[in-house]
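Duplicate of #3305? Posting structure anyway:
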């Protein structure tokens, strides 16, 4: 049996760091294991312009503990007032690697998102011209659509028409949660990819609701049926270059999660790599782990792979803190609900 695996240092292609005290508290959890991460821009106020991205990048680097190496890859938040030329300048500078589409009201801090897609078409056409990826939160927000169907409906009614209308637009379907998402990504060609989170490989909707509500498993997009989870695992462990890791690690203080109307998000930055080694070993696919965590993402984003390596070893049950204590408040670390024997060695 395999007792260790060495791979290129991984990247996280979908990460929430927040700001202020929360940023300072959670950044080390990512920087400990990941070389780079695509940084979500849904702050209050959001990161909309090139200047906003420069300022947020500076705050992230100021919060990075001495001795840690980490490269935040910045993203602009797409609004109906986004300036195409500002986007082009931000991309040309090398600072901004993508633009994020949030349908208005889809998730945390998405009220500034897009309602009328015709108003953002000039930005999307400019992005297609310069090859800048669009990262998509793929859910409709129509209250008449069941929450478990919102991803599939988005693909059919928004994403596919959008890609047909703007050929050449490079799109990342973020945190896919359905077999329909897997199938669409597989059929999409070289300009389409999809990220998959750690927690969606492990939990289905029963984990959230069976035996009592588990607020720390509640996320958006919400976990779906077991058949969808298995489709995600098959995609992630296949080695297919269209799929790569985006943890969507999303810190909220416990007080915001554990209330009558709790926030959505799972915090997985601390233990993602041991959890993924466990999942890939279960599926007899440890040889595909490097592609998912370290190779496929850089290839799509047209970036070099990391030079440094990471080694994971198998041994006694792994331990990690139940909570990360930040100046903003405690943040609960995702609990897979089973023993994990993989450890990050270096």
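Output from current build:
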């Amino acid at each position: 049996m395999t007792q260790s695996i060495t791979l290129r240092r991984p990247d996280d292609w979908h990460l929430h760091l927040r700001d202020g005290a929360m940023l300072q508290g959670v950044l080390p959890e990512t920087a400990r294991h990941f070389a780079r991460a695509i940084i979500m821009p849904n702050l209050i106020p959001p990161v909309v312009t090139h200047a906003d991205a420069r300022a947020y990048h500076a705050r992230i680097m100021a919060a990075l503990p001495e001795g840690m190496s980490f490269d935040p890859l910045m993203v602009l938040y797409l609004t109906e007032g986004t300036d195409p030329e500002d986007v082009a300048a931000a991309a040309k500078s090398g600072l901004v690697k993508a633009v994020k589409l949030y349908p208005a009201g889809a998730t945390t801090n998405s009220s500034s998102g897009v309602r009328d897609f015709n108003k953002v078409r000039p930005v999307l056409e400019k992005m297609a011209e310069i090859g800048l990826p669009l990262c998509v939160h793929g859910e409709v927000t129509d209250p008449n659509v069941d929450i478990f169907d919102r991803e599939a409906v988005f693909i059919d009614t928004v994403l596919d028409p959008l890609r047909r209308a703007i050929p050449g637009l490079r799109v990342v379907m973020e945190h896919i949660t359905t077999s329909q998402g897997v199938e669409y990504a597989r059929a999409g060609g070289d300009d389409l990819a999809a990220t998959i989170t750690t927690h969606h490989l492990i939990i289905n909707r029963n984990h959230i609701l069976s035996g009592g509500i588990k607020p720390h498993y509640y996320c958006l997009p919400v976990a779906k049926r077991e058949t969808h989870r298995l489709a995600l695992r098959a995609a992630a462990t296949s080695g297919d270059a269209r799929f790569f890791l985006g943890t969507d690690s999303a810190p909220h203080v416990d007080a915001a999660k554990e209330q009558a109307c709790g926030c959505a998000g799972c915090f997985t930055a601390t233990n993602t790599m041991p959890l993924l080694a466990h999942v890939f070993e279960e599926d007899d696919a440890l040889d595909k782990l490097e592609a998912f965590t370290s190779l496929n993402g850089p290839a799509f984003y047209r970036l070099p792979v990391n030079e440094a390596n990471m080694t994971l070893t198998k041994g006694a049950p792994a331990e990690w803190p139940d909570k990360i204590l930040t100046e903003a408040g405690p943040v609960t670390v995702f609990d897979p609900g089973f023993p994990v024997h993989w450890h990050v060695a270096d």
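Confirmed duplicate; merging threads. Residues 150-165 form the longest helix (16 residues). The mean pLDDT is 96.
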